[in-house]
Amino acid sequence: MSKKISKKSKNSRGHRRRKRALGIAALVLLLMIGLLIPLTLQNALVVEIDPPERAQMLSVNFYFRDESGHWGSEPRQVEIADNTDIIEAVLQGLQEGPQASAFSPSIPQGVYILGARLEVGTEANTLFIEFSPSFNDISQPIEMIFATSSLVYTLTDLDFVDQLVFYVNNQPMLDGDGNPFGLRSRENTSLETVVGLDVATTNIVLYFTNAQMTGLVAEPRTIDINPLEDIERFILDALLEGPQTYGLFEAIPIGTTYNRVERMGDTVFVGFTQDFYDSLSGGGFALEEMMVFSLVNTLTERPEVRRVQIFIDGEPIQSGEGSSLHMDLSRPIERDEGLIIEH
Prior knowledge:
Elements: H1 7-48, E1 57-66, E2 71-79, H2 83-96, E3 103-104, E4 113-120, E5 125-131, H3 141-155, E6 163-168, E7 171-172, H4 191-196, E8 200-209, E9 216-225, H5 231-240, E10 258-264, E11 267-272, H6 274-281, H7 284-299, E12 307-312, E13 315-316, E14 333-334
Parallel strand pairs: 5-6, 11-12
Antiparallel strand pairs: 1-2, 1-3, 4-5, 6-7, 8-9, 10-11, 12-13, 12-14
């Protein structure tokens, strides 16, 4: 027996299907609107954000020397901030040294700028600079002048710095004569005067032998140097001239000549002529040891030198089988404190 479906039932089911379809369509529409709104807001935010501003830069002239000792300025860009930050950036640049290979650092190795303080006055602004205690260990007064002159001219290139005062170990810096260095400005700091210096004096220590050639004796000496040239040449010349103290004797024969002396890092390279090797190989172990360490201990007396490499006519000294020497001189030689005796 078949069941008869009324027209009212059919209409009711059709109405429910249309209602579900409308509900689904409404849900899809809501989802699309939900996705579009964040995208629209995101695009609006991107448009409204301004690009970051570029930092404004200040041009500062950094003063250094070239290999000939002449002064020159190296322009650098420093970010404009408050005066303290600008001073700190300039001091850091001076401490790091020049960027151009033609210039040499003005602040000696091992010396550091510990701090600075700007004092604003009614007539002039004064910058107080504090050096590390190692500044007092500078053996050549000209190096002190180079360092301070570089700072004076570089920092007074800033329109808010008029003069400088230097301190070492919390005490006012003294000049070579023991007098206060005082206020320094461009008016009393002449770069031309610094460049014109071609003679200075410095204290060194030379090592010669006693009469028995059983040890090395120190002889303090004050010598003239050209501050614009490597000091090792002047030390070697003084050593080869022989001792000035009674009872001391030269280990390296008078008249020995050399054709090269150069410091690279912590090593000094000395190139002798054949006469040095002839003397070295013909006198036995005692003379050989005294000759070598008279040279090595003299040159390593300076703190920046740790060892010495000897050459003969541009060639390393051969060691081992076939060599007439007792010592291995094919490598750099370090200082021997055990050979130093009292006179």
